[in-house]
Design brief:
Elements lengths: L1 H19 L32 H14 L4 H4 L5 H4 L1 H7 L11
Bound molecules: heme C (HEC) (2 copies).
Amino acid sequence: MRKVFLFGAVILMLSLVVGLYPSWAEKPARDGVGPMAIRIAPRFPAPEYHSPLDWWQTHHMDIVNRGDVTQRDCLYCHAPETSCNNCHRYVGVAVVGGLVDW
Ligand code: HEC
Ligand code: HEC
C-alpha cells in the first residue's frame, strides 16, 4: 500500500516539473518567432551603414548618439515596436520613440 502511495507521489512530482517548467522564449532575432522577433518590411533594403551587420548590431547606438544619423531616419524603415523596442526591452535599454522628443 505504501509503495503505491510513494509511486503516485513520484508521478505527481514528475508531472508538476514537466507541466510547470518555464516555457522557452526566443531571443530577439531577425524573422524569429514570438514577441521578440525583429521584423522589418521586406521592401526596404538594408542601408550601407548597416554593413557588416554584426558590427552594426553592437555600434548603432554610437552612430545615433553621435548624431551622424537621427532616430527619425531609422524609423523610415523600422517600426519601433517590432524592430527596436522588443530588443531594447530584452537588453534593458531605453525605448525608442514614444515620449522621447527626437
Ligand atoms: C533603408 C532602410 C533602413 C534604415 C533607414 C535603417 N535600417 Fe536598420 N535595418 C534595415 C534592414 C533591411 C535590416 C535587416 C538587415 C539584415 O537582416 O540583413 C536592418 C537591421 C537593423 C538592425 C539589426 C537587427 C537584427 O537583426 O539584430 C539594427 C539594430 C538596426 N537595423 C538599427 C537601425 C538604426 C539604429 C537605424 C538608424 C540609424 C537604422 N537601422 C536605419 C533597414 C533599415
Ligand atoms: C538586436 C537588438 C537591438 C535592436 C533591434 C535595436 N537596438 Fe538599439 N541598442 C541595443 C543595445 C544592446 C544597446 C545598448 C548598448 C550599450 O548600452 O552598450 C542599444 C542602444 C541604443 C541607443 C543608445 C541608447 C542610450 O541610452 O545610449 C540608441 C539611440 C539605439 N539603440 C537606437 C536604436 C534604434 C533607433 C533601433 C531601431 C531602428 C534599435 N536601436 C534597434 C540593441 C538593439
